[in-house]
Specification:
Strands 2-3-1-4-5 form a 5-stranded parallel sheet, with helices on both faces. It has helices at residues 18-24, 41-54, 64-69, 79-98, 112-122, 136-142, 147-152, 183-196, and strands at 29-34, 59-63, 102-106, 127-133, 174-177. It contains 8 helices and 5 strands; from the N terminus they run αβαβααβαβααβα. It has a domain at 25-134 and 166-195: P-loop containing nucleotide triphosphate hydrolases (Rossmann fold). The longest helix is centred in the middle third of the chain and has 20 residues, at 79-98. It is an alpha/beta fold. Bound molecules: adenosine-5'-diphosphate. The site of adenosine-5'-diphosphate has 17 residues, from helix 2 and helix 8.
């Protein structure tokens, strides 16, 4: 069977990248930060990026806002466009991971089905789902970009948590309660998980 069952091309084969790992001395992974807007994904992604680089790891950040300006600029916020957005991010993450990077994705990724799809594209063994958790009231108070204000005023439609659903992750690899944890403690929790699982596979 083709490695890419959805593709019209039937003779595609996955690139074996195990030799890359040896070169970088650690197992690559995709650390997928999911959570509602202003939960802290970008803030934690930046701090995690710095911490991983201090460990000598090669990293890349894929931020939801920046892909929407480029790779996914043709997509809106309907359910099917959000799913396509996530599929593209997952495919690009996989390519970067295959190049040996630790990839940090900061993307609301509200539907559990599409996160599951991303996991299947990246591979269960490499996918680290991190729920960046803040209650809606708290995120709405933080509102660093003023987006909740706009959504409440009806200026943004399909806004996650207001008029679009967020499926709370049931079994994320890491759960971060951002009301209880500082940014540094959240980074530590992710690094702990990655460190303990570096020998998987
Ligand atoms: P997102 O990327 O999820 O939309 P951002 O990282 O852009 O969220 O914004 C989260 C805001 O919440 C930032 O202004 C950040 O400083 C603030 N914040 C307060 N406490 C925390 C915490 N414990 N963890 C992460 N962010 C926090």
């Amino acid at each position: 069977m083709s490695y890419f069952p959805d593709s019209p091309s039937q003779n595609l084969h996955a690139f074996a990248f195990s030799h890359r790992r040896a070169g970088h001395g650690h197992k690559p992974a995709v650390i997928w930060l999911t959570g509602i807007s202003a939960s802290g994904k970008s803030t934690i992604a930046d701090a995690l990026d710095i911490a991983l680089q201090k460990q000598g790891r090669m990293t890349a950040i894929i931020d939801g806002d920046s892909v929407r300006g480029g790779l996914c600029r043709d997509l809106g916020f309907t359910d099917s466009d959000r799913d396509e957005n996530i599929r593209r991010v997952a495919e690009v993450s996989r390519l970067m991971m295959e190049a040996g990077l630790m990839v940090i994705v900061a993307l609301i990724s509200p539907s559990s089905a599409s996160r599951h799809y991303a996991r299947s594209i990246i591979g269960n063994e490499f996918f680290v789902e991190v729920h960046v958790d803040a209650p809606l009231e708290v995120a709405e108070q933080r509102d660093p970009k003023g987006l909740y204000k706009k959504a409440r005023a009806g200026q943004i439609k399909h806004f996650t948590g207001i008029d679009s659903q967020y499926d709370v992750p049931v079994f994320p690899e890491v759960h971060l309660n951002t009301q209880a944890l500082s940014v540094e403690q959240s980074v530590e929790a992710i690094l702990d998980w990655v460190g303990h699982n570096d020998s998987r596979g």
